[in-house]
Amino acid sequence: MLYDTLADAIGGTPLVRLRTGTDRGVEAYAKLELQNPFAMKDRVARHILREARRRGDLLPGAPVVESSSGTMALGVALVGRSLGHEVHIVTDPRIDPVTLAKLRALDCRVHIVEAMGAQGWQSARLERLAALMETLPGAFWPRQYSNPDNPGAYRGLAAELLADLGHVDVLVGAVGSGGSLCGTARALKDTLPDLRVVGVDCVGSALFGQPDRPGRLQSGLGNSLLPENLDRTLIDEVHWLNDREAFTAARELARDQQVFGGNTSGSVYRVVTALAAAAAPGTRIVGILPDRGDRYADTVYDDAHWAAHDLSELPAPGAPAELPPGAVAHSWSRTAHRAPEDLRRHLVFVESNTTGTGMIALDLARELDAEPVLLTSDPGRYRGLTDTGAEVLRCDTNDDAALRAALLGRFRREEIAGLTTTSDFYVPAVARLTTWLGLPGNPPEAAAACRDKAALRAALAAAGVRQPRHAVVRDPSELPGALAVTGLPCVVKPADGSGSTHVLLCHDEARALAQTELILAEETNARGMAAARTVLVEEYLDGPEVSVETFGTGGRVHRVGVTAKSVTGAPYFVEHRHVFPAPLPEAESRAAADTAVAALAAVGLGHGAAHTEVKLTADGPAVVEINPRPAGGMIPELVRLATGVDLLRAQLRAALGRTPGLEPDRVGHAGIRFLLADSEGPLAGVEGEAEAAAVPGIASVTVTAAPGTPVRPPRSAADRLGHVIARHTTAEGVIAALDEAHSRLRLTVGESHVPAGAGATGP
After folding, report:
1. Which of 60, 116, 471, 472 is 20 to 30 A from 78 via CA?
2. Ranges assigned E (strand) in 23-154
3. DSSP label at 9?
4. pTM, 2 dp
């Protein structure tokens, strides 16, 4: 195969069947990562450096600095130099002559520390690296022990295993930085949730609760520190081998399988053979072999080195002993592993919606045994936030770099159980973060397409999904051409809007032009993000509006149901009533759901809740927009009251990588009607709450606007002042209860009393 550079040849390593367990019908394989140009860490270096360049963290020609005594140094040297960067490697006296020679041949600058630090060689190297960074302005440090792009690099390895084998029962890998085993396991578990993961460590390493012994001779695995990329929640079993056992296993790997590997490859091979000997017929085991043996010619494969360190005097029982809790391993030992009991797992929210389900979600996280954390630029925007008890991390949530820094500065990877949002505005950022961290979520490009309605229109058109005729306008001069496509009346709206903000029905070109100019003049949105300054001009579709609530899990889309929606009169489109499930003929509901599912497939959205708005026209359903999150407007609460399916809980469970739970346990209907003002002025108060709550079938009456709040006839969802929720066995019963309760509520705006729903003039 032809490659432009050696860095392009990284990956696609051989998978070799081992001659062990074959007599019992067990399949044992070695993934030969040592067959990368230098070794396994080539994958990491390439992924980290390319991602850093893509994000702008590594500028062209800037220095790259890394701490390593082995294969990460070689990988950074290979990729960094091929990309034109000066590369500095901080290492220690344990570096082997072959690696040192390669680094110098690649024109790297090698800095060797002279003495151990307080926590061994690793801490000494990090101290030297910090001092070096101060002398190199603009230098980039890959941070293999904490950068999530390290485990992220192994999604490719997981994909190769799935392509070659389709199914794996047991994955075995060495643990050093936590990147290779955790990254591969996490990616495999997306499709193989029952995968058993076995970690291989060395005696004297502190990774899994053992006392640190810095004098160990093995390299490539083990650690004196707890790396931030290590996710112990993924690992089901741990084995420890001492130096003699690891070196012996490497020699046996070469002798028995003709694979010339280092001590890390040998340790993995030893554990694979033991597992294969005990496994049931049909079990498929894969061991990741990271390092080749040329770096160990004068250590692992040198009898004089053995004699100098009295390696033959170390115990080598030949089989793993069960290690009791609190015991210290001196030779090959194993234990069934569980994450530490004091490990706190967090569900992180990137901002939230400001009404409805936002604060409810933070409360619900604790019921799912996760600590809620809110990343926000402005905690004061959230009413009731303090009452949730959620941890609040303040940062610029409109900046991906600031979000990543906030997460890395606060959490080790294993402390983050999931990441989500209940705000439209932050769905794309969450998709980028979940991809970066290897957490459950949607592809960033799918989330971005849903957020950018112009991109959504293009994706739906390419897939042949019915939608309004439309045109994209970025300059007022383009409006006449757009109207030639859509005709009049038309709907003019921002391509990146939310909550019906700046959505207007226009009957003439002058009104459409004024609305277009208004939208294009907006520099930022309600959350301070740079506005897209793009207008979507759409054909006005006359017909009832519904939304289709779906949930993606396990590679399929579950159809939760269809919600009937009523909106205020033209020219604004503010939803003032929802009824779930919609009182529609079965054929209409099915057609709407089919159209929504086709739309989700068109953009590649398949994880978690989606709320797809659809117009029912004489020519069939047409998609208005897709919201890749649970519906707003308290629709999840309606679904729960009507069917028992808790969409918000399901969304959080899915974010945590758990089965969402979507089976209904009841049949009924529920609905909501919003409180809206009919005049402009300060809200003096709302009367009649008790009378409204006493209406049979009413589940709750909530006023969200405080006295003194400026109110107006509704133009967007932000103009809702509260709501009434009802539950009944029929849709007709729900609507009757909502109307009766609503009639008992009275808003005082200035000095005038008006019915709470007077502003709702639509159907």
Report:
1. 116
2. 27-32, 64-67, 87-91, 109-112
3. G
4. 0.90
